[in-house]
Design a protein that fits this description.
The protein has about 300 residues and is α/β, with parallel strands linked by helices. Helix content is about 30%, strand content about 25%. The strands form three sheets. It has a ten-stranded mixed β-sheet, sandwiched between helices. Strands 5-6 form a two-stranded antiparallel ribbon. It is globular and about 50 Å long. The chain starts with a helix and ends in a 6-residue tail after the last helix.
């Protein structure tokens, strides 16, 4: 009797162990990484077919503005909705948080801006490179199709990443920002550039000058001209005029549009096509949808 019962228990245990145990599929999660002694965080959003499809996915890294966060970028700009629609992996890193003060805002060290991250020489280039390397190693990421898009201070950081990491980034998108980092003529590596800006933006003025926080911003044109040279574009500007916005583009010798600039006549320092989330914030442009324009630009490019 005892032997029979023992045999039955063993059989039951073996049967349970042999069953296929379904591991829950997680599509949105937060990861942490230590860079230069600092614990950094970022959110990963996988498309709904990630676990069923073996194809490597493009990756888009979204960088928030000063005072924002990765989750704020994701939510305020409906960016994960675009990621699902276009079938790419979206990642939302957090800038380093200021240790003192009431607001403890997050910023990026974009080279000449902004605040705590710049003043403490935080190596955000290393942080983003670490994220990219981790995702390539552990997820189905197409290493030739990695893109960066940023808003305001995040857009300034996107410019710096393009300048210093052309080996990792296939294209960048910038909204309401300017190029603050060194425009080094000796740096090489072509990176397609898309810039979106409202001519009514007084926080980061398109023509440069004093803006938000009393910071003096360089003209957007300086950064555009730098990339025209670095991307081997001809100086002929192709201009298309639409209702409430203009599109300026420049091609390289192969006829590929490498630099594109959208200028809206409405909105302000805000993400075009989104909604206004704060009473003190600027109204977004309704002339175009930044998510659509950015992805249409990105998907044309991949690394060699």
């Amino acid at each position: 009797m005892i032997i029979t019962l023992f045999t039955a228990l063993i059989s039951l245990t073996q049967s349970s162990c042999n069953r296929d145990v379904e591991i829950p599929k997680t599509y949105r999660f937060e990861k942490m990484v230590t860079v230069d002694g600092l614990q950094r965080t970022y959110i990963v959003q996988l498309p709904s077919d990630y676990y069923e499809n073996t194809t490597e996915k493009p990756l888009v890294i979204g960088l928030h503005g000063a005072g924002g966060s990765g989750s704020q970028f994701e939510t305020n700009y409906d960016f994960s909705q675009k990621a699902e629609q276009a079938d790419f992996i979206a990642v939302y890193p957090d800038g380093v948080k200021k240790n003192d003060g009431v607001l403890k805002i997050r910023t990026w060290n974009a080279g000449g801006c902004c605040d705590y991250a710049m003043n403490n020489n935080i190596d955000d280039v290393k942080f983003i490179r670490t994220i990219i390397d981790d995702l390539i190693a552990n997820y189905k990421v197409n290493a030739k199709k990695i893109y960066v898009v940023g808003m305001s201070n995040g857009g300034m950081m996107a410019y710096r990443l393009a300048a210093e990491m052309p080996d990792k980034i296939a294209a960048v998108g910038i909204v309401s920002a300017t190029m603050f980092c060194e425009k080094n003529p000796n740096q090489v590596g072509e990176v397609p550039i898309l810039h979106i800006h409202s001519l009514l933006d007084i926080k980061v003025p398109f023509n440069g000058g004093i803006g938000i926080g009393g910071v003096e911003f360089p003209p957007v044109e300086e950064g555009i001209n730098y990339w025209l040279q670095r991307d081997n574009c001809n100086t002929a500007t192709i201009t298309e005029t639409y209702e409430n916005y203009e599109k300026h583009s420049w091609k390289n010798s192969d006829g590929t549009t490498m630099v594109m600039l959208y200028l809206t006549n409405d909105g302000g320092h805000a993400w075009p096509g989104s909604i206004k989330h704060r009473a003190i914030g600027d109204a977004p442009s309704i002339a175009l949808n930044a998510n659509d324009v950015i992805w249409d630009f990105f998907r044309q490019f991949s690394l060699p």
